[in-house]
């Protein structure tokens, strides 16, 4: 089966993925807030007072940035580039937090000494949080932002007047230890290594996110296609079709029941009502008829203007197709009468529903071209069912069922088939347009 609304389907898939991105980002922000709260507790016990106050302020800004990024992402006015700004701000703030001396620490230490704590690992934690949004470019941007911010921070430290990054004399073990022992020493090789590893990890993570995004898109597409199948087929049939790679590749012939339902006098009614009222009425009636078709395990083949075509026994026949079609026909007529009596649409009181149903051999398969395929049910059975629905206007009844349908329903011996059969009376043979032979029918 091929969906004609390809662009609409793609938009629905993108919208579904976008919803998942926002949900994942919210989860990430919740986890981030909890983690920062835990860090605040640790700082309370590990840092000399009043140094934690400065850390609390920075942690609060981190939380604020994260939730602002989520709120902007879900807003209608937010733009794609806004997220890149927030990511850069995150890494810039992290660089400031790790390198700028805490002014509330009750003792002095050179800014270069902050590099001895190995705090650069927090950059990888921040980078990993970007994987939640299924955007590989944003992950790469995070790596580039982190590298750039860290490089700027290291550059600031190198420009301090007391910074030492190389020994003026011979390079040996003793001189190296002397350098390391100096609190203002900066190991440039280690700093370059940090930036290089960060960029490599960002690239690898971006590839993983790209793969995850493709899988998420594929799953969203499959879910949408399965949902579309459920608009036409009963749930079990839709599940079966979703599991098969090409269920309609070869046309098949078997016995099925075909039902046509149509609103009589709808054209005249619509002339006296606005397009909005017309669409609203059609949606109500179509929804009611579709629900009855699915309730009786039928397939909604198509909406035809103000009517519907439904089949029972496609794409796979069952041992209750005729009984289900008979039950659906009677229920449709009764449901439509109740709908008018309940006054849900008083303007539709002059309308009535005509239903015709027949049982016999049909051909099931795809028709069309390689670019546009459509599932179709073809054969004389379909034509007879359509003619029966049309001739109800001449006879003046609500529903007409062929004797073939009644006989097949009785042969199936389903529990409620007898009750529905009792509501129909034999009308005798009638002549249908385009057919040389008369056909035995029953009327409701």
Question: Would you spell out the secondary-structure blueprint of this structure?
Answer:
Elements: H1 6-46, H2 51-74, H3 80-99, H4 122-129, H5 136-158, H6 173-181, H7 188-230, H8 235-243, E1 252-264, H9 266-271, H10 275-295, E2 299-304, E3 307-312, H11 321-341, E4 352-368, E5 373-378, H12 380-395, E6 399-402, H13 403-412, H14 417-421, E7 425-430, E8 439-443
Parallel strand pairs: 4-6
Antiparallel strand pairs: 1-3, 1-4, 2-3, 4-5, 6-8, 7-8
Helix pairs in contact: 1-2, 1-7, 2-3, 3-5, 4-5, 4-7, 5-7, 7-8, 10-11, 11-13
Description:
By secondary structure, the protein is α+β, with helices and mostly antiparallel strands. The chain has two domains: 6-227, no CATH class; 245-443, Alpha-Beta Plaits (2-Layer Sandwich), CATH 3.30.70.1230. 58% of the residues lie in helices and 14% in strands. Strands 1, 2, 3, 4, 5, 6, 7 and 8 form an eight-stranded mixed beta sheet that branches. A hairpin with a 4-residue loop joins β4 (352-368) and β5 (373-378). α2 (51-74) packs antiparallel against α3 (80-99). The two termini are 35 Å apart. Mean pLDDT is 79; it is low at 1-9.
Report the end-to-end length measured between terminal Cα atoms.
35 Å
Give the low-confidence spans: 1-9
Sheet with the most strands?
Answer: 8 strands, mixed
**Alpha plus pi helix count:** 14
Cα-atom radius of gyration:
36 Å
| Helix-residue proportion | 55-70%
Number of spatially distinct domains = 2
Number of strands: 8
Overall pLDDT level: 79
Order of helices and strands: HHHHHHHHEHHEEHEEHEHHEE
Structural class: alpha+beta
Shape: rod-shaped
Estimate the strand proportion. 5-15%
């Amino acid at each position: 089966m091929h969906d004609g609304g390809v662009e609409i389907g793609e938009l629905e898939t993108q919208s579904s993925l976008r919803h998942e991105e926002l949900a994942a980002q919210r989860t990430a922000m919740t986890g981030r807030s909890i983690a920062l709260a835990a860090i605040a507790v640790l700082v309370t016990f590990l840092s000399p007072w009043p140094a934690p106050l400065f850390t609390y302020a920075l942690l609060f800004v981190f939380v604020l940035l994260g939730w602002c990024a989520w709120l902007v992402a879900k807003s209608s006015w937010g733009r794609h580039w806004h997220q890149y700004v927030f990511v850069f701000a995150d890494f810039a703030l992290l660089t400031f937090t790790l390198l700028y001396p805490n002014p509330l620490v009750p003792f002095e230490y050179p800014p270069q000494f902050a590099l001895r704590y190995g705090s650069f690992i927090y950059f990888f934690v921040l980078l990993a949080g970007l994987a939640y949004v299924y955007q590989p470019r944003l992950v790469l941007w995070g790596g580039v932002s982190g590298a750039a911010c860290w490089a700027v921070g290291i550059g600031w430290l190198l420009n301090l007047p007391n910074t030492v990054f190389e020994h003026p004399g011979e390079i040996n073990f003793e001189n190296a230890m002397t350098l390391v022992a100096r609190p203002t020493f900066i190991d440039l090789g280690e700093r370059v290594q940090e930036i290089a590893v960060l960029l490599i990890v960002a690239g690898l993570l971006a590839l993983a996110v790209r793969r995850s995004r493709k899988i998420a898109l594929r799953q969203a597409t499959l879910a949408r296609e399965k949902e579309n199948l459920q608009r036409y087929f009963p749930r079990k049939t839709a599940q079966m079709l979703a599991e098969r790679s090409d269920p309609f590749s070869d046309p098949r012939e078997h016995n099925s029941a075909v039902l046509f339902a149509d609103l009589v006098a709808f054209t005249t009614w619509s002339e006296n009502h606005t397009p909005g009222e017309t669409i609203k009425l059609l949606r109500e009636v179509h929804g009611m008829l579709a629900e009855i078709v699915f309730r009786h395990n039928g397939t909604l083949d198509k909406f035809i203007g103000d009517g519907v075509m439904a089949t029972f026994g496609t794409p796979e026949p069952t041992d209750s197709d005729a009984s289900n079609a008979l039950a659906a026909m009677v229920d449709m007529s009764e449901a439509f009468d109740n709908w008018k009596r309940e006054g849900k649409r008083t303007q539709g009181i002059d309308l009535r529903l005509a239903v015709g149903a027949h049982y016999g051999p049909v051909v099931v398969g795809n028709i069309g071209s390689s670019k546009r395929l459509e599932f179709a049910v073809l054969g004389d059975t379909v034509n007879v069912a359509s003619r029966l629905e049309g001739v109800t206007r001449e006879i003046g009844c609500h529903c007409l069922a062929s004797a073939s349908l009644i006989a097949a329903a009785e042969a199936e011996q389903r529990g409620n088939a007898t009750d529905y059969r009792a509501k129909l009376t034999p009308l005798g043979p009638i002549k249908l347009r385009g057919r040389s032979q008369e056909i035995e029918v029953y009327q409701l």
